[in-house]
Amino acid sequence: MLSIEEIKLLIEKLEKAKATDFQELIDTSLTILKDIELAVDANNSEAIERLDKPEEFYARDVEQKRKKPIVDPMLYRMIQTKIFQFVRTAKASTDGGQYNSLEIGPGTGMFSKEFRAWRLNYFLDTLRDVENKIRRRFPPVHQKYLKFFRTLETECSNIPQGSCNFIFSWDTFVFFTQRHVQQYLHDIKRVLVPGGYCFIQYADCHYDHDLHEAKRGYWNYNTKTEMIRIIEEEGYEVVEMHQFRPGANYAVFRKPGKQNPVAYKVSEITLD
């Protein structure tokens, strides 16, 4: 039996094939599949609501990844190199580098120390004990530049408006429903300066790895097509949609405007 994730993927593929000579067959198949999709979604509305993970899930997940990290050294270097491409933006400010960074869902703090080039480093998480773990990764002289905020959903009103020119998140948005992703992008837009960038990992269930994680209930269902739709509906400009490897898909997008001093340029990551 097809899962709801597989039904949604099939609908998307049939929509793209509608321009062929099989128009009538495709239209009929689409009608049937969409009826099934609506029925499944309706019958499982409460289950769909529960797909947003509780705090206990994240606490267990972070502890497991602290003991056994899922980001190996090669992937870490690729993500690190991509982050460094935005460091130029932080350092190029005409006011001496007064822009700040925001990391959503830092978890174990694996990437948190990579934001030292920014003036202030904001961190937003649902977990209460994130701060102590991350502070241990920084020397005493840098402690005053670390700012921590807790959120229950996507709320980030304590972070000043227009204070950040870079927002990063890895291994967090893959757990969110599409509605949760969209609400987050809506809320964090206030924090970005015009021209500010987001670099966020997401689940793309066009790929078997991501689809498997969604079907087993670990990640939540999303696709590149839907991620682009969400980004554009929230008023951002899509800059780059790519992957380092299966299970490591990312989106780079920006808030329209020119306040950010340097424009990010898409480039391939090569490791010598």
Give descriptors for this structure.
single chain; 272 residues; alpha/beta; Rossmann fold; 17% strand; globular
Describe the protein in words:
The chain is of the alpha/beta class. The chain folds into two domains: 4-49, no CATH class; 55-254, Vaccinia Virus protein VP39 (Rossmann fold). It is 39% helix and 17% strand. The chain is built from nine helices and seven strands; from the N terminus they run αααααββαββαβααββ. The chain has helices spanning 4-16, 23-43, 45-49, 55-67, 73-91, 130-135, 178-188, 208-215, 224-233, and strands at 100-104, 121-125, 146-150, 164-169, 192-202, 237-243, 249-254. A seven-stranded mixed sheet has the order 3-2-1-4-5-7-6, with helices on both faces. Helix 1 runs antiparallel to helix 2 (23-43) and helix 7 (178-188) packs parallel to helix 9 (224-233). The chain is globular, with a radius of gyration of 20 Å. The termini are far apart. Mean pLDDT is 85; it is low at 42-50 and 92-96.
